[in-house]
Amino acid sequence: MSALASSSCAISPFRRGEILAIGFLLVGVAAVLVFRLGAAPPTVNAEERCWKVVSEMTRTGDWLVPRRDGKPFLNKPPLFYWAATAVSRMAGGAFFTTLSLPSVLAALGLILLTLYWACSIGGKSLAVAATAFLALMWSLYEYGRLGTYDMLLSFLGNAALVAFDRLYASRNGRLLVLFFFLVLAAFLTKGPPAFLIVGLPTVLFLGFRRDLRLVLSPTVIGCTLVTLLFCLLWFIILIWRVPEAYDRFYSELVLPFGGQTAHHTAAPHRSPLYYFSRVFAITWPACLLLPLAIWRGWQTGFWRHDPRLRFCAWISAGLFVGFSLFPQKRSYYLLPILTPLAILTADAVLWAIEGRAKPHWAWLGVPAAAAGAGVALLSVPVSLYLYILLRVPFVLVGTFSAILVSLGAATVYLALQSRWKAAIGVFVLAFWSVSLVYFGSFLVWRDQFETETVVQRPDYDETHWNRMKDRYAVVARIFRSKVKHEEEKDKPTP
Fold it and tell me: In the predicted model, what is the mean pLDDT of residues 448-468?
């Protein structure tokens, strides 16, 4: 089925194979996201801060003023804190799992949003392919398991963009209320970046279509003003109640522009070229097919044949350039482009499968062969980690290693046979297998060493680990205690 077909999921139901593929993807993504969730203590600074705020909000019941160590902590709006606190109160207390659960739900929501958006743009084949490529992006799991604001912001920002896409295509006025509600929710998650995530691609898209007059309609202006009022309401209340709130809000506002205040220094400041490498890092290993998507964009004149695919391209390119112009740069700023990139990549792959990309095999076969070979090679360090460091029985390690090698070899074989859908499915399974080892074991050990809580593990053998650190320098570098400033030493315990 052509990726360019304009169809609706509701018109013709999914076939049995497509339903199985979607179920396979949803179950696999959910399994990786929740596997041993909360076993690793917070080590990322932002997650540590969120942990303390949510713990205190859960304990005190003060939902209005986020506090850290008894003092107002106003770095970010409260929506993520509210979500994590609500989960914690339902669970009977704040735990590392309840801290991360809003991000897990946001990541799953992003998968479903991608499925819906791609299906409405190009039909069921595009929907399944886009969902598969999003499931192959490492940062979906890295930030989907992290108890911070970023995945929730990515989901809400993309949901607002989908609402705009459907609003522009259908001219359904009821979607305007949904659009501005989602913008409000995104703003209450992380503040002004929400306006850039939603506003920049929208303005670029309308500007190049010469439809900016739509923004100036009385209805849109009225909804914008009401939304801004609600966005500012929490800040106004906090400025009235908390004496230092104004200075704190100002410091957070100027940080992305490189400003420095008494509260913060905008760091790190990086080159405008910083994101050229990071965009491949956050989409790994799906990024192996990004060159094909770029070539597809070049061949179609920036997707001039389909305005809805072009809107996805404006989101990706606009946010990439927009965030590159800010002095302060972080990898997670690019999370909102995951969904549109997955859709564009899926469109390019379906185009290549139909034989329209020349040479057909090189665009798909080389990345597939590289991915399969990479999985087979990755089985070596994974096996060494399990056998030497964790002392897992040789039979179990050998079995797992054989499975990884078989999955890698199967990916290469299926690619050579041009059975692209099967090759992608097998590689997804291999990717998840490695991810489970990383998130369920390696990351847990590493973070527990870093926070010096590893001694609480019943299977921790200090003599064995010291011997491994003395023998292997790489082990000593990875599994080490983090030296922190005096005020950061009060670590949470599981």
Answer: 93
